[in-house]
Amino acid sequence: MIIEKIHSILKNTFGYHQFRPLQQKIIENVLQKRDTLVIMPTGGGKSICYQIPALIFDGMTVVVSPLISLMKDQVEQLQDLGAPALFLNSSLPPEEYQKNFDLVRTQKIKLLYIAPESLLTSRILNLLETIPVECLTIDEAHCISEWGHDFRPEYRQLVRVRQKFKSAVCIALTATATPRVQKDIKDNLGFLESNEFIASFNRPNLFLQIIPKTDPYQQTLQFLDSYKNQSGIIYCFSRRQVDELAAILESQGYSVKPYHAGMEDKERARNQELFIKDDVQIMVATIAFGMGIDKPNIRFVVHYDLPKNIESYYQQIGRAGRDGLRSHCLLLFGYADLSKIRYFLDQKPDPERRIAYQHLDALVAFAESQQCRRLPLLQYFGEEYHEPNCSMCDNCLAGEKKLDDLTIPAQKFLSCVIRTGKIFGANHIIDVLRGSEAEKVLDFGHHQLSTYGIGKEYSKKQWLHLARQFIQQKLLIKDDRYGSLLPTEKALEILRGDQKFYGLIQEEKADFEKRKDFDMAYDRELFEKLRAKRKEIADRANVPPYIVFSDKSLIEMAGFYPRSRSEFLEIHGVGQVKWDKYGPAFMNLIISHCKMNGIEAAPAKRQTVMNLPFVTSEKRRFEQVGELYNNGSSIEQICKVFAVKPATVLRHLFTYFREGNDIRREGLLTHSKLSPEERAAVLETFKEVGSEYLRPAFEALGGQINFRELEILRLYYLADKK
User: Fold this and answer.
1) Band of the pLDDT at 610, cuts 50, 70, 90?
2) DSSP letter at 236?
3) Confidence of residue 720 (pLDDT cuts 50, 70, 90)
4) Dihedral of alpha carbons 611, 614, 616, 618, sign
5) pLDDT at 640 over 80
6) Which parts of 488-571 are beta strand (E)?
7) What CATH number does the domain located at 2-198 have?
8) pLDDT in tens, 503-532
9) What topology does CATH give the domain 404-503?
10) Of the four listed, 465, 578, 596, 605, which is most buried by Cβ atoms within 10 Å?
11) What is the pLDDT of residues 109-164, one digit of tens each?
12) CB-hemisphere CA count at 13 Å for 237?
């Protein structure tokens, strides 16, 4: 009975056809009054995990939220769905505050959003003691932890509220929490049982890209040229940089506003409101912007400057693509930014400074990695990522670059580490190698060493990039406290010439990945008409356009041409309330468009719209691909069906095989361009080093065979074994 009620609210109130991973289990857990910790990425659907129980409970749910803008946004969306929700905070005029206060007191509200500071006041606590509080929801729960990136002392006091309402279930939610932060949250809130639900931190619809920062103004302008009339955020390190960049973009004709803590409160709030309502497309901001933003159609996030740590980076890119559609995350990586951050970190006391440096080092290692971007990013949050190629980051799209034999540069660097006494960091070693006349080099007499000046062939940036590869490949160990480098046994093997070192020399310049429009089967002309209608209705109601319908809803409308109430209710995000409010106006526009363009019928099946995340059949994509291939479809034909590249099909086939299914061998070798001798060498290598991962084979073959070929030959090899 309760399951039916849950699904009824999901469909009729929220307009969704199915739950995302873990949502139903979390809701059932909360309804059973079990304290619950939810770690779920931004855009993963955290809100529904407490909103549906709140609509089922007889009493009220109190939602602790750190920002006024976040409360306002959530309440507007719930009210538009017909749910009894409101907030109490300082932004309300006295008469409206009192009106809301009375609605809570008379038990006419299901969800009350409130800041922790307000919740802890005697007036609010006394109010809540007079009504049944069934659930305490703590949003952005990482603010509880001193190990989190956004610690707030008032969050630590929420345990007092828990003690006052002992019969209320508590649910704590966050998108960014390392295992250590997760433990801190549970310990502080007194969660006795380990009812925790940790979704994947992976955001598969975000394209991740990092390029060297060379000419940031021009790089940004070039990037924005691919995202005309699209919403996006550009993050800068300083207030001055925000103002300068916003002025430059405005002079180039872009719809842009600045946002930082040095602005007047009214101006800041006005700029944010313009952005949320699609009256301004681009926000140039410091990290002060974004935590309370739930705008689903942000198509890009640019880091003009380097963030301080991976948590900040992950949280900020998490503001893109909350509707599940493809969005671009670009980071301009410059070593000068590292110096600025280090200057500020050096002002911190120890051990806080040491922890901050560890976080910064992890970010730099992520930025310089040649692996799939998702590997180090997800590992940081304690999650393993096993896909050999995500197809949604710059490194994976570039394919595996051919590794160069860099044994001699490695020997130069390692020799210099030893000759300088194994007590210096990479910057000093590089100064010696490049023949610097820096005071520190001369004071230590290192200009007299045999390694002095023998590394002038590479720039300082290139040597730093090499140094991090030496650390990643375990030739060197970096002392966390002092930054000094210590050679390992593997380094000694390189120095003796017993082993070779293969790596990459960083290019001095790089271009960003240009935007690629996915081949989605929807009517773009109709989409623009629907978008204009949405803006007209939203402006009239004084709400953000996404409150009316999300971009994903409009894309489905433009793909399926719903021309009846029943067809319209099948669209993502359209429940009974949305239909009653907006359905007829949008449906009439669709009918008119179809008549004007002679469109007779909508696609027969929902699956005909490609590349819409969460619009799926009962079978997973790798199963669909595997069955099509085994039934005789070629890799090229499957590419057309799903609008993907051959590399993606090959990865799906490998997953299909790994799940215990057979793969036909016929036709595989037609995709290989290797000679028979090269194929034989690859197959023999798989016998020696295994086939679970491709990198061991890639390295064993000296980096001479690219990963596309290895994927083909691995499938052929595995199909033969089975």
Assistant:
1) very low
2) -
3) low
4) positive
5) no
6) 502-503
7) 3.40.50.300
8) 888 764 445 555 444 434 678 889 999 999
9) Arc Repressor Mutant, subunit A (1.10.10)
10) 578
11) 999 999 888 898 989 999 999 999 999 999 988 888 766 556 677 888 888 888 88
12) 19
- For the chain, which residues make up each domain, given as ranges? 2-198, 206-398, 404-503, 524-608, 621-721
Which amino acid belongs to residue 357?
Y
Q: Which residue has the tokens 């930054």?
A: 483
Task: Report the alpha-carbon distance of residue 548 to residue 582 in Å, rounded.
Answer: 8
SS3 per residue for 432-481 = HHCCCCCHHHHHCCHHHCCCCCCCCCCCHHHHHHHHHHHHHCCCEEECCC
Q: Which amino acid is present at 462?
A: Q
pTM: 0.68
The pLDDT tens digits for 661-713 are: 788 877 788 778 888 888 889 888 888 877 766 777 887 888 888 877 888 88
Q: Return the structure tokens found at 456.
A: 């002038």
Rounding to the nearest 10 degrees, give the CA dihedral for residues 252, 256, 260, 266.
130
User: How many Cβ atoms sit within 10 Å of the Cβ of residue 122?
Assistant: 7
Residue 124's Cβ-side half-sphere holds a number of Cα atoms within 13 Å equal to: 18
Q: Which CATH number fits domain 524-608: 1.20.120.80, 1.10.530.10, 2.40.50.140, 1.10.150.80?
A: 1.10.150.80
Instruction: Check: CB of residue 16 under 8 Å from CB of residue 573.
Output: yes
By the 10 Å C-beta count (0-12 exposed, 13-18 middle, 19+ buried), 265 is classed as exposed
* DSSP code at position 196: E
* φ, ψ dihedrals at 42, nearest 5°: -55, 135
602 with 526: CB under 8 angstroms?
no
Helix (H, G, I), strand (E, B) or coil at 357: helix
Q: How far is residue 130's CA from residue 629's CA, in Å, rounded to a whole number? A: 64
The CATH classification of domain 621-721, taken from the options 3.40.630.30, 1.10.20.10, 3.30.420.40, 1.10.10.1390: 1.10.10.1390
Tokens of 274: 């313009």
Same fold for the pair 206-398 and 404-503: no
